[in-house]
Each structure stands twice: as C-alpha cells, then as structure tokens.
Amino acid sequence: MKRAFAIAFFILAGAGFAFAETDAEIDARRNALDVAGAFTNDGFNLRDGHWCGTLKPADRSLIAVNLFAGNQYWFSVGTTDPAKKIAVNVYDESGRLLTVEHYDGGDRAAAGYSPSDSGQYFVSIDLLDGNASSFCLIYSYK
C-alpha cells in the first residue's frame, strides 16, 4: 500500500511539472497584466485564467471565448523578445473580422469590444514583426 501511494505521488508530482509555465510564458503574462492594469483602473475586472502559447511569424493564434451582450471586454496580450510588434483582433462565430478599439504597444497589444449578441467569439493574436516568442492573453470585462 505504501509503495502504491509513493508511486502515485511521484507520478502526480511529475505531471504538475509537465504543465508548469516556462519563464518566457511568465514574462509574457507579466507584460499582459501591465496592459490590463490600465483597464482595471477604468473599472474592468480581470477574468480568471489566461492562455499562453508560442507566436510564430506568418502564423495566427486563435482563442475561442464566450462573450455576453451588454458587457465590455478588453483582450490584453503580452509577448517576450524577440517579438517586436503584435496585433489583437476579434472575430464572430462566422469568422467575420469585427471592429474593435485597438491599443498597440509593440510587443504588447489589446483589443476592446462590446458584443451586441451573446455567443462564441474568437480572439486572434498575430506576430507582425520579430521572431517566434511566447505570448499570454488575459481579458477583462465590465
């Protein structure tokens, strides 16, 4: 019994390390939180959770989000070197590019949107200049 417990403990402990964030993802999240901080000063609440990944030149990262009519949202993205410029956009469920408010800060960017219909939307993150790097997306609402 003790042996089975010890084996299970080491397997579960190892699984935690397999999903741990890298230092680059932590730095990207810090950059995204810097951008989102400006929106929290305007009464926006940070949504629990975040999405991290790797941006590559001429490649797009898409993240599905559920939005509710009547709310305002800001999608904040931070990256790490060697990314130089990124873009954040929002698409509806049919893939149509929506008109959003933009904040462009080079390796940090944000898009603000207020949906008229509740449903699934897609946030895209594009690397416009620079080389592959880690990114982190967080969003806030009010």
Radius of gyration: 18 Å
- The CATH top-level class label: Mainly Beta
CATH topology: Jelly Rolls
Query: How many β strands by DSSP?
Result: 9
- Beta-strand percent range: 35-45%
Low-confidence parts: 4-18
Basic shape: globular
N- to C-terminal separation? Answer: 51 Å
Percentage of helical residues?
10-25%
Count of all domains = 1
Look at the helices and sheets and give the structural class.
alpha+beta
Major sheet, described briefly? Answer: 6 strands, antiparallel
Helix and strand arrangement:
Layout: H1 2-18, H2 23-40, E1 45-46, E2 51-55, E3 60-67, E4 73-79, E5 83-91, E6 101-104, E7 108-113, E8 119-130, E9 133-141
Antiparallel strand pairs: 1-9, 2-9, 3-8, 4-7, 4-9, 5-8, 6-7
Task: Report on the architecture of this protein.
The chain is α+β, with helices and mostly antiparallel strands and 142 residues long. It contains 2 helices and 9 strands. The strands form 2 sheets. Strands 1, 2, 4, 6, 7 and 9 form a 6-stranded antiparallel sheet that branches. The chain has a 3-stranded antiparallel sheet with strand order 3-8-5, with no helix packed on it. A hairpin with a 3-residue loop joins strand 6 (101-104) and strand 7. It is globular and about 35 Å long. The model is unreliable at 4-18 (pLDDT under 50).
